[in-house]
């Protein structure tokens, strides 16, 4: 079973956190309640969280949650909150919070992460580290390494997507290759996916959660609110407890034991290796042709970038992709990359020595 953290974007009132904590206490798959207590807002003026008051409300609903768990014979429900300043750590500790997470905007700032982790030194609090909004795996790793340096033993990474200029219909682009790269570089760090902040809307949340599990993520962090329409923050992306329950029931767990499929997988991977080699050979040939085009453009004193040609090429490639059953938007992105490299190579081979003085 994946490790599931669920709860409201923000703690809004004693009743709201109690309602949601009790509903989650009835779901044995939920390990921890996420509670936003200090809210990092991109722009000033919005609801910034109830701070210590909210921590008190969390502490007050523990007994009722414990009673439900005890009755059902399932492990105690834990509570975690985001910390962004050293004093948040102190307050979270003083109210008995079980774990904390470092938010995306904080991860982007090594100075703040350093101060935070100093405050966490010696506390034994588990820490979840969200990726920074920009797609830089090293910033994510850096924050995890700073946690390690102060002796935090229980660290998890949370993938919440990346804020790019184009987000492919999501609030934050999932760019799955980045958490996969983190997995490769830090194989011992469990990965959770936050489909709520990736999606920015509730509809894609279950599919994103399933994709994360298919990719081998160990868990999920999902925003759950008793009445999402009335939420003070992130209203569009929060789901109700009953929707979370349905989502959990619908999740398909993949086996990590690959022995049965080993031989079949090996053969398919061999095919992939050959196809990739072919693609690279073709790519090299294409770039070679680009160099020849550069020569002709230079002789004819033509500009490297020909917008009309590029526009028609892109349309043709997307049409071909459609006919072949390949996502045209994926192919568009691919050709944008290939074209950029082709332009770079042409410019390089057209550059005269005196251009570089
Ligand atoms: C949050 O978890 O409510 C939050 C603010 O997320 P992020 O740091 O990923 O933007
Ligand atoms: Mn949120």
State the main characteristics:
alpha/beta, binds phosphoenolpyruvate, single chain, 13 helices, binds manganese (II) ion, Chorismate Mutase Domain, subunit A, 8 strands, elongated, TIM Barrel, 357 residues, 8-stranded parallel barrel
Describe this structure in words.
By secondary structure, the chain is an alpha/beta fold. It folds into two domains: 3-254, Aldolase class I (TIM Barrel), CATH 3.20.20.70; 259-355, Chorismate mutase (Chorismate Mutase Domain, subunit A), CATH 1.20.59.10. The protein contains 13 helices and eight strands. An eight-stranded parallel barrel has the order 1-2-3-4-5-6-7-8, surrounded by four helices. β3 (78-82), α3 (86-94) and β4 form a beta-alpha-beta unit. α5 (110-120) packs parallel to α6 (137-149). The radius of gyration is 25 Å and the shape is elongated. Phosphoenolpyruvate is lined by residues 9, 36, 40, 103-104, 130, 160, 197.
Short description:
The protein is α/β, with parallel strands linked by helices. Helix content is 51%, strand content 10%.
How would the blueprint of this fold be written?
Blueprint: E1 3-7, H1 14-25, E2 30-35, H2 52-72, E3 78-82, H3 86-94, E4 99-102, H4 104-107, H5 110-120, E5 127-130, H6 137-149, E6 155-159, H7 177-185, E7 191-193, H8 195-199, H9 205-214, E8 219-223, H10 241-250, H11 262-299, H12 307-324, H13 328-350
Parallel strand pairs: 1-2, 1-8, 2-3, 3-4, 4-5, 5-6, 6-7, 7-8
Bound molecules: phosphoenolpyruvate and manganese (II) ion.
Manganese (II) ion is lined by residues 9, 197, 223, 233-234.
